[in-house]
Prior knowledge:
The chain is α/β, with parallel strands linked by helices. Helices cover 41% and strands 18% of the residues.
Amino acid sequence: MGLIPSASYSITVRLDVPADGLPASQLTAAVESAGGMVTAFDVTAARGDVLQVDLTCAAPDADHAVQITDALARVDGVVVGKVSDRTFLLHLGGKIEVQSKVPLRTRDDLSMAYTPGVARVCRAIVDRPADVRRLTIKRNTVAVVTDGSAVLGLGNLGPEAALPVMEGKAALFKRFAGIDAWPICLATQDTEEIIRTVEIIAPVFGGINLEDIAAPKCFEVEARLRERLDIPVFHDDQHGTAIVVLAALTNALRVVGKPLAGVRIAMSGAGAAGTAILNLLLAAGATDVVVGDVIGVVHRDRPGLDPSLLAVAAKTNKRGLSGRLSEAIAGADVFIGVSAPDVLSEDDVASMAPDAIVFALANPDPEIDPMLARRHVKVVATGRSDFPNQINNVLAFPGVFRGLLDAQSRSVPQSALLAAARALADVVTDDERHANYIVPSVFHPDLASTVAAAVSSAVSGSSE
Ligand SMILES: NC(=O)c1ccc[n+]([C@@H]2O[C@H](COP(=O)([O-])OP(=O)(O)OC[C@H]3O[C@@H](n4cnc5c(N)ncnc54)[C@H](O)[C@@H]3O)[C@@H](O)[C@H]2O)c1
């Protein structure tokens, strides 16, 4: 896959350069020769015949960042000083903070916001427990809970290393939906301890967003918390992904003019994301799905199926396929991968039906190079930001939680997931829809509010 410079590997290199005219083009050429791209050129000080320049550039990866610095050091007359990694600079001291919403300037302010005034508010909540939503942060606050067991695509990193991800999630909640979310990284990976801990912290929160908890544990944690709590519990890696995939598939099918109920779908991956995607596709009307995992096609007679795979087998594979997934991919209209890099060959893709759709969503390296897939199929989506059609949960979760909180929902009905997917798909208008534009930009100004309104009205219409 071609390597494209990205802000996530952005460095600022402090250089001393001769003041009497080292052309900037020599510096940019050095950066470009090492695969980078200059994004800023600031002269930050002058000392006699030397200028101090802060050169900021994007690199494709960490190795290239080192090569860029080396290339700059080789330019005649240039002395390389401090190199700062802008991603690390952005994380110094964390990404979120708490701010007071009330003025605390006078003794009067203190007497109302804290004691003795606050005591009357406490008593009011004792008298009418439902008022906790009216008189506290609860109605707009979400816990982002992880045990650090499946952090991004990086595996079991533990709670401390998961914290930057959870802080980022909290920042996204605030930016896109005005929700105050707080990271809760647990120093346990024991199912019972996770469930009990979330249960006992729940009074503070209007919703629980489970994050980066490994399958199959995540299924039990979510199901049991949903039984025990009177606030919505949503595992984003499952349902956020499923909503965005269904929305993207809805628009991809509109592009190729095929109905969901009539298409053959082959899926690779039956973990957290795969299982939730499957369930939502079936609820939306898909009728012909075959699922494969690391062992092969999931079918009823496969030995050693756990309860989650047994449920998958019961709902899929009506033609009774077994063995490798390739057989199901031949002639399929849709391939959805949430599994591992390079599980799909070019021959596989070439064997699909005319006007096929490929969602290769494994992160960071998809099931197939999207450029290869594009040679054979009509619509391609990945999880990557450097290709069109990025399937990214941030398209869904802020609006979903905004809707759940606004409706004071006590659960997450499936009708709300379907409504969110429909609303997300419809943010892309008929005029805009294209093989390379099946999901809206995450910065679309109406995105979260449209999804929120759909979720809120689905909750109100459900019998939760
Ligand atoms: N782009 C997105 O929005 C998005 C969202 C969720 C997950 N993902 C990606 O999807 C992948 C799976 O995520 P998950 O949370 O479901 O993980 P998971 O560990 O819960 O499940 C992984 C599944 O893939 C299967 N698998 C592993 N290697 C395979 C192989 N070589 N061939 C076929 N199947 C194989 C496993 O058997 C399992 O069923 C990850 O790469 C993740 O980053 C992407």
